[in-house]
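Lecture notes, unit on protein representations.

Consider one protein chain, 547 amino acids long.
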Amino acid sequence: MGTAGMMSPDKLKQLFPAEGEIPAQFGPPAPVHQRSYLVNGQLKPWDGAVEIVRSPVCVRDERGNLRQIELGSYPMGGETEAEEALAAAVEAYDAGRGLWPTMTVAERIACMQDFTSQMISRRQEVIQLIMWEIGKSQSDSEKEFDRTVDYIRATIDALKELDNSNSRFLVVEGTIGQIRRTPLGVVLCMGPYNYPLNETFATLIPALIMGNTVVFKPPRFGTLLFQPLLEAFQSAFPKGVINTVYGRGSVIVPRLLDTGKINVLTLIGSSKVADHLKKLHPKAHRLRAILGLDAKNAAIILPDADIELAVKECLLGTLSFNGQRCTALKMLIVHQSIVETFLRRFVEELRKLKVGMPWEKGVNITPLPEPGKVDYMTQLVEDAKANGASVVNDGGATACGTLFYPAVVYPVKEGMKLYREEQFGPIVPVMSFDDLETALEYVITSEHGQQVSIFSSSPDQIGQLVDPLVNQVCRVNINCQCQRGPDVFPFTGRKDSAEGTLSVTDALRSFSIRSMIATKQTEPNKQLLDAIVSEHKSNFINTRFLF
């Protein structure tokens, strides 16, 4: 579909395949009815309640009705299963005495490399499940898998470099010391549905490789895609190092935190949820939180901006994977003198976006996986219209089933839900400004502080904006969209957008703490340390170099 034309619900409905029309090579996977969960090194059978998984992809029946394709089911555990998984993780950590936390770094890396090899062997299954579970295009699903493998390898390389830099003794003021990074304990890891593999592993992998043990709750949408990896987790890591839990987060997560036995909470999700969960821990100061939370990233487009470049980057920034990215551009702030030109070109380019099913080549807009999301998008647009805004693109906000055609909404202003709420979907709010202070004030008064984009060709204007903005957000993008990568760059946010820093190296630090041994610089102590090192008496006290 090259242009929206006269977009209508019926036109959107025709984009869903009829029964039997899905190309065989892209067809849905054989139903995955998961009937086991990983706990204490065993794939334990499950015969209790299950959750049915339905794809955002619908099929049309003979009468033209839409039906979401059923993909399978997974266990719906409760507090008992959560406590069992936690007990296994606690036992495997064993107050820091367990096999995993006391292993050498080289041994943990070997386990991770074993896991990675097994993961790669299941590549096609995982990609297919990403595509069908969350409606991500096939090409983007492939990129997510491959980027995740690259991330694991980069993490291994970063850990080698980190450990090698700590493989020597320091002598300061008559004291000999060796400082290394050590694990924190038991980690509760929860990932998001929009990047269910990559974002989840961006916390899970560094947590594991630093010697922590893990209780892992897969995202609500994007659960089945981890099923092909359970055997790899089981065989690559010692028992109890990683344990999976399934069920209602509102039931099992409070129970896990209430025990006080979780040392680290890692969540990619809502700041409101994170605030609530942190309060459940009986000793909040003992709970380290590594959180990737809400964002309402803005793009500020100045009068001297390259309009074509700004349109191209903002189109990608607002609508890649239907705008379901925390780094998406969720407010475009355009100077009054160019707003009409910008909107005209933006809408012209938006018309070229292909709407369709995830397996279609070149598809840009696909079905939304979250139940109720289409209705929520509609409500946001109706609220803006009721308060004086308009949908400026033909067919914008047209919906049918799980498809929502992108809506460009202008002018968005204070008092509209779209002004502050994170839409996390295919709506493009646009506001204009005359005074640069207006644009700055929007970012300053936001509850969020992840990133911002600036579009300008003026060194003076960019310099004037960068200096205050770097004190409001953690990344200022110049003439390009907001984004996470490259993975070696720090990824974090201010205000309600994050806690802790993720990136290849930063994540290793986030999931560990510096510990050290120290002794007086005396001849007996030097001989003692030399014996420990030369006779390999300690995994902590060593001078080994990892290649």
